[in-house]
Amino acid sequence: MYKKGLTDRMLRWGIISTGTIAKKFATTLGGMKNEAIFAGVASRDIAKAQAFAAEYGAAAAFGSYEEMAASPDIDAIYIATPNSLHYEHTMLCLDNGKHVLCEKPFTTCETDALKLYSAAHERNLMLMDGLWTMHQPMYAKIRELIEEGAIGEVRHVRAEYGFTAAGARKDFKMDPNMGGGSLLDVGVYNIGFAAMVLGTEPVAINAHLNICEYGTDDLANVMLVYPSGATAMLTSSIGVKMPTEGVIFGTKGLIYLPNYQQATKMSLRPLEGVATEFDMPYPVSGFEYQIREFGRCVEAKLIESERMTAKFSAGVIKIMDEVRKVGGMRFSFE
Questions:
Q1: In sequence order, which ranges of 175-309 are alpha helices (DSSP H)?
Q2: Is the four-CA dihedral 67, 73, 76, 80 of positive or negative sign?
Q3: How many domains, in total, are found in the chain?
Q4: For residue 4, is it within any domain?
């Protein structure tokens, strides 16, 4: 097993699953060799794990998730399995004393999210929702601009995210047995964006979900109303390609992001005066910010990130629960 090169500050990461998002995480670890160690990858097919390890530089390959969770050579595990399995696999890792970063959506319901955070707190382990956008430097700048009153009082937030899929990819993305559909796949980014600005406790939730032949939503329109009277209008789709725009409207101007999910560019447009452009390119992939934050928390012996608290994470899931209830979408495993 992996031994060489360990330091007190470098976490030995394991990845559960070998899919697309696992590849992005592994690639990011490869670009952070002085900050984190890619110590292992697990698949239920050992050949897939071995091939993944060889391609992305993992020190070990495991033929089961249980084996990785029990390994003394792994400190933290990234869960990259389908949505419906996040609870099971996160709990497996917590039960084996591992810190966990779980890919978004953290869980498919608020109840499961609260159970996981409770279990992590009881075991004094770091647990974080993998809604990676919240850790981007541009988001910190947005919060700073809003707090200093650069656009006045926030009155409305708008966000869209839509893409097309076909064949096996579409089948996977839409599968009700996997917690599929546009809301949980990309709508969670919309809701997270709005929640960053307006909070996780709207007083009213209105939604329309177009339930397609899979039994999940291929289009979701969500409107949130907050105590201040501010609103958010959020649209997600699998089947309609949309620009991933985010706009925050205030009484003195607006903040515009041409791609709020990959927030490397932004424009501050006051009602009076000239616009200010911001450009913050990623050194690696954008995932490095959540990996660094997770490592910082573990090193500081924290069990929650101040940037991605249990309250915020569970609050986003709670909003999605209500949207599904209003929109009439229930998963087969519920």
A1: 182, 188-198, 288-299
A2: negative
A3: 2
A4: no
Residues for the chain: how many in total? 334
Helices 188-198, 137-147: axis angle to 10 degrees equals 30
Enter the tokens of residue 121: 């707190």
- Produce one character per residue of 96-106: b if its CB has 16 or more CB atoms within 10 Å, e if not: bebbbbbbbbb
Q: Which of 133, 155, 176 is the last residue of a domain?
A: 133
Tens of pLDDT, residue by residue over 266-323, are 999 999 999 999 999 999 999 999 999 999 999 999 999 999 999 999 999 999 999 9
Cβ-contact 293, 32 below 8 angstroms: no
Q: Is 280 helix (H, G, I), strand (E, B) or coil?
A: coil
User: Which domain covers residue 244, as residue numbers?
Assistant: 134-327
For 144-166, how does the pLDDT look when each residue is reduced to its tens digit (9 = 90+)? 999 999 999 999 999 999 999 99
Q: How many CB atoms lie within 10 A of CB 298?
A: 18
Q: Per residue in 39-56, is it b (16+ CB within 10 Å) or e — as a string?
A: bbbbbeeeebbbebbeeb
In-domain check, residue 2? no
Residues labelled as active-site residues: 104
Bridge partners, 188 (sequence order): none
Would residue 243 count as lying in a domain?
yes
Tokens standing for residue 216: 């999940």
Following DSSP, what letter does each residue of 192-224 receive, concatenated? HHHHHHH-S--SEEEEEEEE-TTSSEEEEEEEE
